[in-house]
Amino acid sequence: MTLFFWVSFRLLSPSNFGSSRQMVDYLQTSIQYAVGGCGLYFIVVMGLFDFSVGANIVLSALVGVLLSRHFGYWGLILGCLLCGTLIGSFNGLLYSRLRIPSMIVTVGLMLILESVANYAVTLDKAGFPGKLSSGNILAFGRAPWNYICAGLAFLLMFFLLRSTKIGTYCNAIGSDELIAKNMGVNVEHYKFIGFVLLHFFVGIMALLSVSYGRGMLAVTGMASMDRNFKPLMGTFFGVAFKKYGYPVPAIVIGEFIIVMIFNGLVALNVPTTINDFVTGAVLLIIVTLTNRGRKGSVVK
Fold first, then answer.
1. Within a domain: residue 131?
2. pLDDT at 300 over 50
3. Would you say residue 171 lies in a domain?
């Protein structure tokens, strides 16, 4: 499938799409989304959603930038990861305590986090708020460190899904929450863990994103929501292919396909609205086809 889209866009726009350098750029962009998609898998597979992901990416990146002013790489890394994880813990706690739909809880949190991110910008007195001040602290925005960081995140997800109760119980809750509860699974506890893991991976995505873009802009008015959907598209690939036992590769490949389609349409000078329409339509087609039951099997 990846080859199909590459060949198609390469033939249609040979001068603007698919060169070796461009493919590297597509890959570096897609692995950022794939890391976020891995985190989203833990709650999406349980039937939950989190609208605050984009706002957390922005806030965690800005916290990392602020701490990097004083502590270099350690400040950048720990700022992104700890901020992301703490927000995930807060989200999970609110969801489990308030007992209202996750979408409602996280929309409110998105607005709060956007406001906090804008306040964090005012604390940056370096003269270029939100930007990494040193060219020597951008290693996670280029090879090989961006690939190493993303690769470690993918291995962590693979380990959690294959070798821990977390992966087993998250999938069980998603398949049938009532049966999982009757089997003794603490459903609320694992939903809380799902939110924590989601935002830990979001912290990693924030680290990669701020390093790749050399900075992060604070936004308001729900503008951070745009950062939710590309990681989510990869998650849909992962959920669609989980029955085959390959959610992690599916997320990575799915994000790469989405990035290729987006850039291919840009190379063809397709308007943004049509670009979004085509990208969404292709995603729906792929997920629909992969969710069809095998011949002779029963679709539940």
1. no
2. no
3. yes
